[in-house]
Write a structure and sequence with these properties.
alpha/beta; 8-stranded mixed beta sheet; 7-stranded mixed beta sheet; 19 helices; 15 strands; 47% helix
Length: 586
């Protein structure tokens, strides 16, 4: 009986897998048939060839290595083929003899061909834009290649080629844009000697690049204690934890250090799980919390989550972001924000019933600037339903919004996550700062336990950074310069159709570029032109969501430097607007 049962299982499994393989190949050949029919119209054929023949980096795919990807594409195209679009494409390429039966068919066929090609091109473009343009400018665009051909010399290109040869390729890094020789204060200097004002800085340059006081603190610590082995502590790490407890609002006074922000996000959620006994989270679509597998589960950008990454953490629920300009609840049509987005967060908390934490950036990096009422409601809803509130302030704390911590503009979270500029733009360092009541929750597990957890050098850099921010009143300068910049940009918006919205807090500013003020259509191509032309004129910044100019200069910026940067930006926007065929007043 045992052998008979085994035999049945083997036969059944074999038949099942045989059917799966058969269906895959069936759809594959159906797809091939439809694709060949559509190639003349530059429709599905081009999209298919692009997807199958290239990875996200543009490198040729190897059939064996990417068999799963090919089968997935084949299934998708096969379903399209069976559903009708490919049959339409086939009808558009009928034989001349068939077309001869209807003298007017050539014109009609061409019109249909053009329509199908237009629709297919839009589908392909939307898919690529959704994946590639969510978090920063990407390295595969024709505009970048054109800029490099025009502005880079032979020596820089050679270095970029070496970089591309030895580093793994990815959409937001290698192949790189340019090469740097020096960075100081607000400026980058590339290998060709060009000085560039950096309003990007990977969000690490609150105190400016190469801050002398931070550099000196690092040098001194390297001479004393360059590393602290596990099971030991050291004076700089303890002093940093004390300083963070003194600065943080409320009873946020328990700290855990780690080498990077992504790791800190993982620690924060792990702590929330241990405290609540739950595992589900609520986070925002379009958010970013790091690039590791757990962090992208909480994040909401497809360039990190999609394109073959596979299953993410179970229980990672998402809600629409608080974005009044593009509200998913259509609040503008009702006369303005009525907190429907906050009500939805509470709805999910109540419906799920077992959420351990809401994790969010208090201000999204695009940026979205929530009303204080939004976070008041979410804070109350978390308390009501037994969930913790985690604020990821990795990119926008340490003075950028006019306060040392962004949460000081809103509410006190249960857990605060810091990073990026904490190490002074030199040392990689992040921190989780939790309220006192969470201290015992993680004692039975290793929440972090990272090799460089209590880095004496990183801690020395952080202490020097915090000291510099306080002694030079950088929070005040961020608030003052931010208000000044917002005023100038909003004045420019009144006379510039392409500027759809200007928003910000302190020196975290977003300028949204559109092609129509009635429809608020995102100006993807125009924004990319603006970015590269500004770069050629000595101003660097990041594009988010493909069309939002994100301006985050060092907090040390002067009024004269701000004037220069805004003049470059506004002049360039007006120039691109005048040349764009997509601009419309309707």
């Amino acid at each position: 009986e045992f052998y008979s049962i085994c035999y049945c299982f083997i036969v059944n499994d074999f038949l099942l897998y045989s059917w799966i393989v058969y269906l895959c190949f069936f759809f594959f050949f159906q797809a091939e048939d439809g694709i060949r029919d559509a190639q003349e119209s530059r429709g599905l054929g081009d999209v298919y060839k692009r997807q199958v023949s290239t990875q996200s980096t543009g490198a040729p795919c190897r059939p064996v290595t990417h068999l799963v990807q090919m089968l997935g594409v084949a299934l998708m195209r096969g379903l399209q083929r069976c559903a009708a679009p490919a049959r339409l494409s086939r009808s558009l390429h009928s034989s001349p003899a068939m077309r001869a039966e209807n003298p007017n068919s050539d014109t009609e066929v061409q019109l249909l061909r053009d329509k199908v090609a237009e629709l297919e091109a839009k589908l392909g473009e939307q898919s690529e834009l959704k994946i590639m343009r969510a978090e920063g400018d990407v390295n595969l665009s024709p505009a970048r290649q054109q800029w490099q051909e025009e502005y880079l010399d032979e020596g820089t290109r050679s270095l970029l080629e070496e970089d591309a040869k030895y580093f793994l390729h990815q959409a937001l890094s290698t192949p790189c844009l340019n090469a740097l020789e020096k960075c100081e204060g607000i400026y980058l200097t590339d290998t060709q000697g060009n000085k560039i004002m950096d309003f990007h800085g990977n969000s690490v340059h609150q105190v400016g690049f190469g801050n002398p006081e931070v550099v000196e603190a690092i040098k001194q610590q390297l001479d004393r204690l360059p590393f602290c082995t596990r099971r030991y502590t050291n004076r700089p790490a303890v002093e940093l934890a004390k300083k963070l407890a003194d600065l943080a609002p409320g009873d946020l006074n328990r700290t855990l250090l780690c080498p990077g922000g992504t790791s800190a996000v993982g620690i924060a959620v792990k702590l929330a799980r241990m405290h609540t006994g739950r595992f589900k989270t609520i986070s925002m679509w379009e958010s970013f919390h790091g690039a590791s597998l757990d962090a992208i589960s909480f994040g909401g950008e497809e360039i990190f989550r999609g394109n073959g990454v596979g299953p993410l953490l179970a229980g990672s629920e998402h809600v629409p972001p608080c974005d009044e300009f593009r509200c998913q609840f259509k609040c503008r049509s009702r006369g303005g924000c009525d907190m429907a987005c906050a009500d939805y967060v509470e709805y999910v908390l109540e419906t799920e019933g077992d959420i351990c934490a809401v994790i969010a950036e208090p201000i999204r990096w695009t940026p979205y600037i929530p009303k204080k009422e939004y976070w008041d409601r979410v804070r109350a809803a978390c308390d009501k339903h037994g969930a913790l509130l985690i604020f990821d302030e990795i990119p926008n704390s340490l003075g950028r919004t006019g306060a040392m911590f962004t949460c000081e503009n809103y509410v006190v979270p249960d857990i605060l996550v810091l990073g990026k500029g904490l190490g002074g733009g030199i040392m990689p360092l992040a921190a989780v700062v939790a309220r006192e009541g969470l201290n015992e929750a993680g004692k039975a597990v290793a929440l972090g336990h990272y090799t460089h957890e209590k880095s004496p050098v990183g801690s020395a850099a952080a202490l020097a950074t915090l000291k510099f921010i306080e002694e030079n009143n950088l929070c005040y300068n961020a608030a003052e310069m931010g208000e000044y910049a917002l005023g100038k940009l909003r004045e420019a918006m009144e006379h510039t159709d392409m500027i759809g919205d200007v928003r910000g807090m302190g020196l975290l500013i977003g300028v949204e570029l559109i092609t129509s003020k009635n429809s608020n259509t995102r100006a993807f191509d125009e924004a990319e032109q603006v970015m590269y032309r500004c770069l050629s004129r000595g101003l660097s910044f990041k594009l988010t969501m493909g069309n939002i100019v994100t301006l985050v200069p060092p907090l040390t910026i002067t009024k004269q430097e701000m004037d220069t940067a805004i003049d470059i930006l506004v002049t360039t926007i007006k120039e691109v607007q005048a040349q764009s065929p997509n601009m419309t007043t309707a």
